[in-house]
Amino acid sequence: MPNINGYEIFKTIKSLDRFKNIPIIFLTTLNDVESELKCLKLGALDFIRKPFVPELMLSRINIHLELASYRKKLEFLVREKTETIENLQDSMVVGLAELVECRDGETGGHIKRTAKYLEILVYAMAEAGVYSDILTEEYIHNIIRSAPLHDIGKIGISDGILLKRGSFDENERDYMEQHTTLGGIALQKVIDATADESFLYVAKDMALCHHEKWDGTGYPLGLSEYNIPLCARIMAIADVYDALTSECHYKKPYLHSKAVEIILSSSGTHFEPYIVDVFKSISDKFNVISELYNQNVEIIE
């Protein structure tokens, strides 16, 4: 191109969002290998030297179009298979959560409600720009998928403790608290036996650490502040809110306003202050979920 640098034009086109995916073929009088390599490294689809034979050029373009068609079909098949696998995984997650529900109806309802609370809270955090570097679309997707598994360790707790009427003594409480460790161990075994599935790592962190506290007085590891995985810090609020507002065999539920008051007063001790601030701004949405589930009304997605 006389008086114009074709490389710079190419870079400019590729820098524009609406043009960046358009395939570009260099048609040039340059015939050295270095120029061809430079074009291909920049992302050119092909490099054709002048003078060119029209039939040959058309044939090469048709080949590229055919390859592009194959690539789109392959991408569609991969996407379709990925969705199938993900749906299967989600069904297994729900199935595992329902195993807990079969043993303890209270825990089963708790699993459904906390999953909804967490979803509301994590989207509110993303909208508020809290932890924008961590709360990517993928991470949000994984944390929502993982939520039903946060109490999966309760499968390993005996009926005598899990279904006990009344409060626990110290030994019983220590035993019940092992559900976090049991859940973490179980999910780690799944991770070890499967391909790299990022949502399983989130699920393990959540199951193991959702009873940790911001000030380090939680269990099972006594983690504090940012050493607690973000997914567990978020679930901690959803988990406690549900425990406060739900009726169980050893207590009556608190009013929504009282539950919110308790959570706000625990900012900086039990819960991370930033997440509590977001919770405060959307706590009315928690109340809607709580009332619907407590009235046995199915939530429409």
UniProtKB/TrEMBL annotation:
Alphabetically ordered keywords of this record: Hydrolase
Protein name: Stage 0 sporulation protein A homolog
Summary of the function given for this chain in its UniProt record: May play the central regulatory role in sporulation. It may be an element of the effector pathway responsible for the activation of sporulation genes in response to nutritional stress. Spo0A may act in concert with spo0H (a sigma factor) to control the expression of some genes that are critical to the sporulation process.
Hydrolase found in the keyword field: yes
Biological processes annotated in GO: phosphorelay signal transduction system
InterPro entries, per the entry: CheY-like_superfamily, Cyclic_di-GMP/3'3'-cGAMP_PDE, HD/PDEase_dom, HD_GYP_dom, Sig_transdc_resp-reg_receiver
Keyword Hydrolase in record: yes
MF-aspect GO terms: hydrolase activity
Domain of life (superkingdom): Bacteria
Domain Response regulatory, residue spans: 1-65
